[in-house]
Structure formats: structure tokens, C-alpha cells
Amino acid sequence: MNITAHPVVASLTPVFLLIGLGYLAGRLQWIREGAVKDLSNLVFLLLIPALLFRTMSAVNVQALDLRPLAAYFPVALGLLGASIAWRGFNRGSVVMAVGGVFSNMVMIGITLVELAYGKAALVTLLTLVSVHALILLTVSSVVLELVVAREARAGGERVPHVLETAWAAFKGALIHPIPLPIISGLLFAQTGWTLPTVVDKPLQLLGSAFGPIALVLVGVTLARTPLGGHLRQALWITASKNLLLPLLVGLAAWTLGITGLPLTVMVVAAALPMGANVFLFAQRYEVAQELTTAAMGLSTVLALFTLSLVMLVMSYLN
């Protein structure tokens, strides 16, 4: 068998080549730090909403398989809780636990899954993406706010009610450039209408620009990611994110009778490297910022090997 022709290699190679080019651009200062935020805004506020809306605007809600949600998120939340219990109930513990379960489904996952498995696989992935941040970030926000509240009470300060905190977290995760276009696209699809060409073509062009720009941006971010001094803890987080989570998700999906392409997409989604939202948590709560950055970089670099392994295993199981 020609290894270069294997579909796993064929789909992973362009993804990591683009990340590598972004890394080179970052190291050589072709894309400077001030431009990274602008490029991030371009990706999240314009390119990805166009891709998500257009993809979901042709999906009939009756055809959606919701079993992946029932398999994926109880496992992710269970691992999140176990990680917090293992490390202790504090800010750093919660942020590290989130790093061990939160996948980069958008900037890496969407392009990789489409390259490897085609547009049909995107329906399963986007079903997960639609509530990924909503569930994991909301729960994590509430847990972090409970930690902050406990610290504040210990200092004699007044803290908001837990329900107020939960609502604010839920609203922030819902009104977001990822869930909104998915939900809007699904609602549009149920009307039975089709997008007019004058609207569909610009959305298609914007969506096709998302993949390469997002992957180059991942590489640029990696070029500014220090690993020194945090390698051991970053390895634990990476092991949870890149290996343990996909194993547990795969077992949960198998017990629910999920097979074939949906099973593969779920396991690959779980095996994706750590998402950037974890750093935003660390930044907001002023804890473990350097460790989170190091873990994100290490998880992405090692994904070249761990993700290849997971995808090869799934290719032989299905």
C-alpha cells in the first residue's frame, strides 16, 4: 500500500502544511502580533458564519441524528468533573480540566473532516459544534464562577446568585458567531426555500476562504507559544484531550449503537487538539495563562501523531 495515497495522510497533510506555513510566517514576522486579532475577527465574525449558515441551510432537521450529542457530551462533562476532582476545586484546576476536554472543532476540525470524509460528515460535526461551546463553556463558566464566589465569600465580599451566573454564561455562549449561524441555517432549511445564487455564491466564496486562513492563523499562534517550564502539566492535559477523550467518546458511541461515518466523526472530533477558547478562560480568570498556552501548543503539535493514529484506527474499524 502506498502510504502517501492513504486517505488519512491525504487529508492530514494539507492541514498540517498550512499550520506549518502559518508557523513560518509567525516566526519570520510576516504576520505581526497586531494583525492576529484582526485575522481572528475576520475568521470568526465573517468567514465561519458564512460557512456554517450555508452548510446547514440545506439540512432537513428530521434527518439529523441527535445520538452523537447523547454520546459525546455526557462523556466530556464526566471527564471534566473527574479532572476537577483529581486536581482540586480551584481556578487553575477548572481551566486545566477544560483544556482536557475542549476540542478545536472549528478552526481545525471543519477543514479536516471535510477533507477526510466529505461534506456528508460535516452534518455530524456541525451537530456537535452547534452545542459544543454552549454546553462545555456554559458549565465551565458556572463552575469557575462558583470557585470565584467561594473565594469572594472567604474574603467577605458579596457575590451574585448562581442562577444569575448560569444565565449570563448561557446567554454569552448562545449569542455567539458559531451557534447562531448554525441555528439560523437550520431554521432557513425548514422553510423549503433555497438560497438565491446572488446570496449563495458570496457565502460559498467566504466559506471556502475559511479553511486556509484559519489553519494559517493556528500556525501563527503556535509561533508565539512558549512551552518552557510547563511541559509536564501540558503533557497531562494533552493526553486527556488527544487520547483519553476520543477513547471514552468512542466507547460511549459504540454502546449507543452509533457506527460508520457518525462514529468516526465523533471520535476524530474528540481527538482534535485543544481549542483556543480555553486560553480565553485562563485570561479572564487570571490563572494558568502560560500553562494553558503551552498546553494548546503541545496539543496541536502532538496532534500530528495522535490524530493520525486515531484516524488510522477508525479507518480500519469502519
Give me some keywords for this one.
Na+/H+ antiporter like fold; mainly alpha; cell membrane; 0% strand; 318 residues
What does this structure look like?
It is a multi-pass membrane protein. Pfam families: Mem_trans (PF03547). It is found in: Membrane. One of its GO terms (cellular component) is membrane. The chain has helices spanning 7-27, 33-56, 67-87, 91-99, 105-117, 119-154, 162-174, 179-189, 197-223, 231-255, 260-271, 277-284, 289-317. With 318 residues, it is mainly α. It has one domain: Up-down Bundle (Na+/H+ antiporter like fold), CATH 1.20.1530. Helix 5 runs antiparallel to helix 6 (119-154) and helix 10 packs antiparallel against helix 11 (260-271). The protein starts with 6 loop residues before the first helix and ends with a helix.
What layout of secondary structure does this protein have?
Blueprint: H1 7-27, H2 33-56, H3 67-87, H4 91-99, H5 105-117, H6 119-154, H7 162-174, H8 179-189, H9 197-223, H10 231-255, H11 260-271, H12 277-284, H13 289-317
